[in-house]
């Protein structure tokens, strides 16, 4: 019998511990930093940012490849033909003769661009085989090797300008990725406080409902003793109904806010989410000069200022380079040969050289060249002014945000004190009403002030952390750890 009791106790303990374990897994407790990291890792916005980052990386790799040696193998294998073709006779007449041949070739080309001059060094080796099936004849032609150089003269050098602008674009894209991550922090902070405020409102509503019912019970006793009027009872009954309605509304708001937070952060499962009230980093100091310095060092906008000016100067150089005299100098040298066997092509090849200067001079364009240049110069001036204006706006936005952040630090201290005072006042009012020396109106006022103070404190926390993450976004600097933000 004792053994049976012992086994039953053990079984009940196991069931109890199991129930506790299940209860623990039913609630997912999260704080603000955890929610921010989840959003950065799992949100659709974060995945899109990673995709954009990869796209920009491969664009950068494509740009870099333009300055690397290029090696290409080209060929016609086979080049078989069997048809009739026109052949002009010595007397000028045309006869259609049958042809049946294979003309195959294989070429290996090498090229290297020179960014400083815009020219190109190239090399080639080629072997060609011609099979005449009608005459049972085979011929080989080839270039054992050849070297050449092509140099545009007095023209726009796109390689030189790309070498200045493309690194700026790549660095801009890297910083833009970090900004996107910080933008996610700002967005998810809003969702976090939406749910936190909904949970606080639900706690307030449930507490008010419980307290109002308790006070109504006491009031019923007072009414029976003739100490309070029927009107006061009716007022309390109305308060109970309103409190009960507030509980239902708050539960609905919690469900909506939870769904929004789950959807954005990618939190899966059906566990109830319970958010911790974030603390305030009171010792954190933010100076305007520090934020401005970090912003101009880290933000993609700061890099974009330099890039936009460089692109405007490039467009002017392009407009000038495409006007007036255009010339291209080409020169090559090497060896070539023809033979009846492939091996003989490479035996005692003959020298080959060529030099060519190609010119293009506009004689009359009715001011087109001048107009293109003036347009590019005017656009450069416009972009210069636009960049100056954007820089002023950039600075002002940072100065304003630093001021707001420091104001939020002071404001949250005041709302914290107000919340404590309102809670104490509410407690005293409840006790005084029970003792009978406080009216129902004054009690309702104490209720409302306490509720408002709690909501104001959460709103102050929202403003503080929203301003903090906005500062991180504007400067790409972590003011808690005093380090630049990197990913």
From TrEMBL:
It is found in: Cell outer membrane. PANTHER family: OUTER MEMBRANE PROTEIN TOLC. Keywords: Cell outer membrane, Membrane, Signal, Transmembrane, Transmembrane beta strand, Transport. Pfam families: OEP. Belongs to the outer membrane factor (OMF) (TC 1.B.17) family. It comes from Pedobacter ginsengiterrae. Gene3D superfamilies: Outer membrane efflux proteins (OEP) (1.20.1600.10). The keyword DNA repair does not apply. Residues 1-21 form the signal peptide. SUPFAM superfamilies: Outer membrane efflux proteins (OEP). InterPro entries: OMP_efflux, TolC-like. This is TolC family protein.
């Amino acid at each position: 019998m004792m053994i049976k009791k012992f086994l039953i106790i053990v079984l009940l303990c196991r069931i109890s511990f199991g129930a506790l374990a299940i209860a623990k897994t039913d609630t997912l407790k999260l704080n603000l930093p955890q929610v921010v990291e989840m959003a950065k890792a799992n949100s659709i916005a974060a995945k899109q940012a990673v995709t954009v980052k990869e796209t920009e990386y491969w664009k950068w790799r494509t740009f870099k490849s333009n300055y690397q040696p290029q090696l290409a193998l080209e060929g016609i294998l086979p080049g078989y033909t069997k048809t009739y073709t026109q052949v002009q006779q010595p007397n000028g007449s045309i006869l259609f003769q049958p042809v049946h041949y294979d003309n195959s070739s294989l070429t290996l080309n090498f090229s290297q661009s020179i960014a400083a001059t815009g020219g190109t060094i190239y090399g080639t080796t080629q072997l060609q085989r011609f099979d005449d099936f009608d005459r049972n004849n085979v011929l080989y032609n080839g270039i054992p090797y050849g070297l050449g150089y092509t140099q545009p003269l007095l023209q726009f050098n796109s390689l030189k300008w790309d070498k200045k602008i493309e690194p700026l674009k790549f660095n801009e894209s890297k910083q833009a990725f970090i900004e996107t991550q910080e933008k996610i922090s700002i967005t998810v902070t809003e969702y976090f406080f939406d749910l936190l405020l909904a949970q606080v409102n639900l706690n307030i509503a449930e507490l008010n409902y419980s307290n109002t019912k308790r006070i109504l019970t006491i009031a019923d006793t007072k009414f029976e003793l003739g100490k309070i009027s029927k009107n006061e009872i009716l007022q309390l009954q109305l308060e109970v109904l309103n409190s009960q309605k507030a509980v239902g509304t708050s539960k609905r708001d919690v469900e909506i806010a939870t769904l929004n937070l789950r959807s954005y952060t990618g939190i899966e499962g059906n566990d109830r989410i319970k958010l911790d009230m974030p603390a305030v980093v009171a010792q954190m100091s933010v100076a305007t000069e520090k934020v401005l310095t970090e912003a101009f060092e880290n933000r993609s906008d700061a890099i974009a200022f330099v890039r936009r000016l460089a692109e405007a100067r490039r467009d002017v150089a392009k407009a000038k380079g495409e006007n007036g005299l255009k010339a291209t100098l080409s020169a090559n040298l090497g060896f070539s040969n023809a033979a009846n066997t492939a091996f003989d092509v490479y035996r005692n090849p003959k020298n080959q050289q060529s030099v060519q200067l190609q010119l293009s001079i506009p004689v009359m364009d009715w001011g087109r060249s001048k107009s293109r240049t003036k347009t590019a110069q005017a656009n450069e001036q416009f972009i210069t002014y636009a960049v100056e204006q954007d820089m002023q706006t950039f600075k002002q936005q940072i100065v304003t945000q630093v001021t707001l952040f420091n104001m939020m630090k002071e404001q949250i201290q005041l709302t914290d004190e107000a919340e404590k005072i309102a809670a104490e006042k509410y407690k005293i009012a409840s006790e005084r009403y029970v003792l009978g020396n406080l009216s129902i109106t004054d009690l309702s006022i104490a209720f409302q002030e306490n509720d408002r103070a709690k909501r104001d404190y959460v709103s102050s926390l929202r403003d503080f952390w929203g301003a903090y993450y906005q500062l991180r976004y504007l400067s790409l600097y972590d003011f808690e750890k005093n380090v630049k933000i990197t990913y």
